[in-house]
Amino acid sequence: MASLKCTKCGASVEFDTGDKFVKCSYCSSQIFIDRSGAGFYYALPFAMNENDVVGVFRRWAGGSTRAKDLDKLAQISSVKKQYFPVYLFKRDVNGAEQVFVEPAGSTTLPGLHSLKVPGGDLKVFDDKFDTAGAEMIKPDIEMAPYLSKLPGTAKEQALVYFPIWKIDYVFEQKAYVVVVSATSGEVFSGEFPGRSSGAYMAVAGIGFVAFLVEGLLAIGSPVVAGVLMAATIAAVFIAANYVARRM
Fold it and tell me: Is 199 exposed, middle or buried (0-12, 13-18, 19+ CB in 10 A)?
């Protein structure tokens, strides 16, 4: 048997070597045990259901940098509800509290190094917490490597299960994946079908050449050049609008 002090009430808590989680018999706090220490064990509830998250994905896919009609043509192949483990560190840095979040699980999914944990929504993770059928991804990264790199002095450390939606989709026979934060609706994507900039560059280039010629013409015929410039502005606007809608 080994023992440690509860990170909440300071009481002595005994546990077997190899245990990852233990409950304080005095204050009932659930404690995560890592080789480098102990911390609270929390989870965040899902704030978005599957319909909500699909709607968020479609709106994201309709953005100006995404491929034309991606929001309509992307074929969603799976939507997975998951809890991803992260470490939350509260540190005193020059008299001010700063919060750092780092992955506790190995992953290649996009955005999981940039999650923001809303502190007020944290719930103690125990046998009463409802995971709502989400897949629980087990932590497999130790806390120690992060502790040696963090600034300031420790105030609190915790393992937090963060709710995410993983969406797999196919566009033009190529598979992609996005992750949606189930607390904020923020979308993370490593690679996505982008909209070609070639047509925009062509419109800009033609407009530049036309203005250059009209500028030279203005030296001898300012009225004619002014009319042509006005026509060029209208033509560039119409062409850019066409490209934005059709390409």
Answer: middle
Q: Specify whether 54 is located in the same domain as 114.
A: yes
Indicate whether 94 and 175 sit together in one domain. Answer: yes
Q: Which residues contact residue 113 at a Cβ distance below 8 angstroms, ignoring those fewer than 6 apart?
A: 102, 103
231 and 145, same structural domain?
no
Same-domain check for residues 99 and 212: no
3-state secondary structure 65-125: CECCCHHHHCEEEEEEEEEEEEEEEEEEECCEEEEEEEECCCCCCCCCCCCCCCHHHCEEC
Low-confidence residues of the chain: pLDDT under 50: 35
Same domain, 206 and 127: no
What's the pTM?
A: 0.69
Per-residue pLDDT, 93: 94
List of residues 6+ apart from 56 with CB closer than 8 A: 48, 180, 185, 187
Q: Are 72 and 167 members of one domain?
A: yes
Residue numbers of the domain that contains 139: 40-189
Q: What is the pLDDT of residue 135?
A: 95
- Express each pLDDT in 56-110 by its tens digit: 999 999 998 898 899 999 999 999 999 999 998 889 999 999 999 999 999 888 8
Contact 40, 143 (CB under 8 A): no
Q: What are phi and psi of 226, to 5 degrees?
A: -65, -40
Could you tell me which of 97, 108, 102, 99 has the C-alpha nearest to residue 141?
Answer: 102
Domain check: are 173 and 149 in the same one?
A: yes
Separation CA 234–CA 30 (nearest Å): 66
Q: Residue 180 falls within a domain, yes or no? A: yes
